[in-house]
User: Fold these one by one.
Assistant:
Number 1:
Amino acid sequence: MFAEERQQLIVGLIAGSGRASVTDLAERFSITTETVRRDLAALETTGSVRRVHGGAVSADRFSTNEESILVRIVQRQPEKTRIAEAALALIPRDGTGSILIDAGSTTEALAALLATRMAATAASSEPGAELVVITHSLPIATKLSGEPGIALHLLGGKVRGITQAAVGQSTVEAARRIRPDIAFIGTNGIHAAFGLSTPDPEEAAVKAAFVHSARRIVVLADASKLDAETLVQFASLKDLDTVITDTNPSRELAEALADAGVEVVVA
């Protein structure tokens, strides 16, 4: 196989999964790691990929890249629905307790499923039973507002337009004063060494407060978030209890999650 052909295949693999490691590419094409590194260097020069430690990622995976919630909500919908269904199964059906739902497209899918379930079970629920739901996301609050059996608490702050979520010191302080049973957290990246990250420092501060406030931390992350690093870390893998995703993590990430004692659920 000519180098040009192999390099085009490498670009396709990285575009499909978002990332590829040097060792995996060497095994796949039966070439040395030095040859892989030369290929990646050539591809980076043309802007086809971006090299990172241990491999390469898609050229558009910069640490500050962030699409709006309106764009993300229509991406990877089947995968996000499967993740949301697995997360919904963790919420008690008796309509009691408290949960926190972080801003994000996959967590918004969870909120939609929760609203549907609460409406369907309202007639059979215990009188007066209410599930306390806390969020700082305007779209999530809209989906859950007025649903039977839900006591909705909306955390205030400055609304960040791209995510439609409240951020800032007042949001962080409010998060520190609560202790929900489960926090469902969204992330822009989950990485073996860097942990969980997001591009915006204010969003990161709120997410960090959520992680340190809840009794149980459940992260919802589709495959595009796996092995990704964005600008600001807000949690380590050891802070997590469960990760729900739609594909098996890479070997490196799977081992790091196992070492941190994190349960991985593939929906």
Note: DSSP finds ten helices and 15 strands in the chain.
Number 2:
Amino acid sequence: MTKDWNTRTNLVHAGTRRSQYGEVSEAIFLTQGFVYDTAEQAEERFIESGDDEFIYARYGNPTVRMFEERIATLEGAEDAFATASGMAAVNGALMSLLKAGDHVVSARALFGSCLYVLEDILARFGVEITFVDGTEIDQWRDAMRSDTKVVFLEALSNPTLEVIDIRKVSDLAHEVGATVVVDNVFATPIFQRSLDLGADVIVYSATKHIDGQGRCLGGVVLGTRDYIRKTLEPYMKHTGGSMSPFNAWVMLKGMETLDLRCRTQGNSALAIAEAVEGHAKVDRVLFPHLKSHAQYDLARAQMTKGGTVLSLVLKGGQAEAFRFLNALQIITISNNLGDAKSIITHPSTTTHQRLTPEQRETLGIGDGLVRLSVGIEDTDDLIADIMGALDAV
């Protein structure tokens, strides 16, 4: 049984379904629909489908199901639903749980698109949102109400890498009957299992570490089988946010090396953070497993490694940040993360540019902050590249 296997074995084998041809690599079932032997069989399948019975690609597909079962096994979840992108996962997880008049409590430090879903879309449909400083447990406690239906947070905030005490927040949420939804992308499924910390629903942008090589968009929502099949699936299959079979196949291939890549990236990220901290041209280095991090002890308790992303706050603001980015030779400028290639971006002019200067200041996203997603290149080469670029600042 897969439950008895260790992580790296599950990442290669969990959820595998072979056709009559006995293929080694997972098959890609590029089909929109499925054939029934009889009209009676079609009728029965629309009433209730079994694990290996499919109706339409928007509802489910053998290749997509392999990916869902493999990621659910890795996460320790009962079930999963794969989506077209990470934001389709966030939107689906929240929209499937909420209706007009409901209340959401959310950490304020979020990715720009997540803020848009909360502030613009959900608020437009009559959902009340209360934002809190995710690191202040008293603010979470004060914000909870009897009509709070959902609590939403990023395990590590983007891009300031704040760490939230998921167990304490989950306990507070469950006291009022709220569902805890955690975006676990920055923590990765390798370094943190947020379900074990009390969360109810986990979302990932599979575009990031799960693919890990910059090829395809994808997302996934994980939770109990009851939630996935009775609450999320009806919303997703009727609104069309499902993952394509080809992208699911790419994600399955990415998962085979997910543990190897993440551990290499995590080790390099810590080494880079330690090497750069204290540099004369760097004001601060933000990395959860760096001893200077404000939530270092909590990060060590929740995560086996500090993740694959760090942020640098350069002295001199945007002009010096741009000089630094433009001087890099190995690390490329892009707004993605979790890739095998090291990637860097300037959040205040890219991922968080739609926020007002006041909002960015509140979140700690200054003009000198750059976010570095560490790849699998040689650590010493990356450090030399960063140090060389700092000479240009």
Note: The radius of gyration is 21 Å.
Number 3:
Amino acid sequence: MTATAASDREVRSQDIQTGEHRLRVYTCGDPSKLAILFIHGSGPGVSAPSNWAHLMPSFAEDYYCIAPDVLGFGDSEHPEPAPTGGMPEYTTLRARSLIALLDALGVAKAHFVGNSMGGMITLRVAQIEPARIDKMILMGSGGAPIPPSEDLMKLITFYQDPSPEAMADLLVRFVDDTDLFAGKLEEIAQTRLALATRDDVRRSHLATFNPEHGPVKYTEDELAAIQHQTLVLHGREDRMLPVAAGYYLAENLPNAQLHVLPHAGHWIQIEQAARFTAQAKLFVAG
């Protein structure tokens, strides 16, 4: 590998102004190549690096990888006061901030990879500016009209008891095989808790999951109007968003294929990183 190639595989961070808001953005790869935009899910203490940093170098061989902290998460801007209206308003606001990010980076079109809430935002971009998306990968995506699971409610209501023990209990609910943490659960929980307990992060979370407003639910007709080639990936043992959510999206998006991964929870990209990478690369290159 040449020095230039090695440099392209390094994950770099920068702050980018996207219209009215600032996003912390992590990039990897050659900007002249076709872009892949990785959009993380929700939850206390989540960030783009925690979801995607371990995968981006392998994709950077062929693509320009972009992974922002979504507006209202991590080190991106947390609007104050936080927008009211719960998930529907925040989903549109966040979708438009990602479109503005592509504009700022000079990217006309990208493949979108959305995990959980990131899948819901991807679908909103597909509705409001479909020409900006090439192919979509929806992984453990929200947006189906199903009630929240017990595990998802633990995420939503985390700030009722924002303790290290509560964070550790939440983290194990994201995976099927808890051996993944290999004795590092307490350390990981403490690291994530430090971000989660920031005042701005807490404020954004509570606005996102305002109980006065229901979550985004895409109707069958709304999904039928989205024509993008789509790969729906879902863990069979997903406790946050049951696999029925993946079936709903795949059955109603007209150009979708569904892959259900056994022995996988909500964090497929972490729990089964090699399989996720292989399927994602095959799909976007096909």
Note: The mean pLDDT is 93.
